[in-house]
Amino acid sequence: MPLSAAPQTQLFPFERIVVLLSCALSFLGSGLLVGTHALWPELRTRPRQLLLYLSLADLLSAASYFYGVLMDFGSSSWDCVAQGALSTFANTSSFFWTMAVAFYLYLTIVRGSHSSAALLCFFHVVSWGVPLIITVAAVGLKKIGYDASDVSVGWCWIDINSEDRVFWMLLAGKMWEILAYVTLPVFYLLIKKHINRAHAALSEYRPILSRATDSQPRTSVADKKLVLIPVIFIFLRIWSTIRFVLTLCGSPAVQNPLLVVLHGIGNTFQGGANCIMFVFCTRVVRNKLLSSWCCFRSEASEDSLPRPESRALSRTSSLKDWGAQDTDRERDEFPST
Questions:
Q1: What is the mean pLDDT of residues 56-84?
Q2: Over residues 111-129, mean pLDDT
Q3: Is 147 left (phi over 0), alpha (psi -120 to 50) or beta?
């Protein structure tokens, strides 16, 4: 069954609310990751620098999806095309940065290679440049537009009436998504295997090198947690791939409400999931946030309290109202201004 023959997937109010909430949480989570990177220079390690760029892509993606779900487009209007272009660029860039993080971890943890400026420059050229070229080509050839929510959840992507829509759906996202499914687990397994082997070797020599057990391993806690990015990515993105395959097959299951909600959450919540893992579940960052919040609350409380002079005048006035007789002692205790 051709894609154009498939009926439009109707979005129920509860589906839109859930996906909009997911977009908002992802936007806030990505913003928090960017904020922690900007506020605390000591956290600006190379792995977290890569996470910063991934968060920027997820932030743009969440914002564009939020607008698309909110509008629930029914035609290829100008704002539909603009939203589709932005989400295509940000979403594809997120794919590339996710693979860049996994590749970087493989090089540093498994191969023991030191990161260089040239490697980071390569990541920038590929992760920003390739999505930009694809997006500009898709907009120039008028391939982005209304897609009947069969391969989206209210937002615009590749025009459902385009004759070569399958090719552009693959080029503008699905091909890179499927490639990530293949490459990320390989990197993930190699990294985990190397870490487990290192732990086994350390345990073997622990009786001899007792001091070595007190030292930090070569890979930091942040590096180890970054290994989980591929797992988060696959768990969240798999639902959109399932709907894409069902759409190609013309299956009515593509309109299943549960699948639609999972697709909407999966495409929009990566920024929120990364924030939970690398802010709230990372002790150093969590402690800094709590410390900053406590300092803010303390300063706010101090600002809300009356000044000593104001407290003195208030207490003097109160005592006079209640008929206090020892005015000389009160004057010595609370000097007049």
A1: 91
A2: 87
A3: alpha
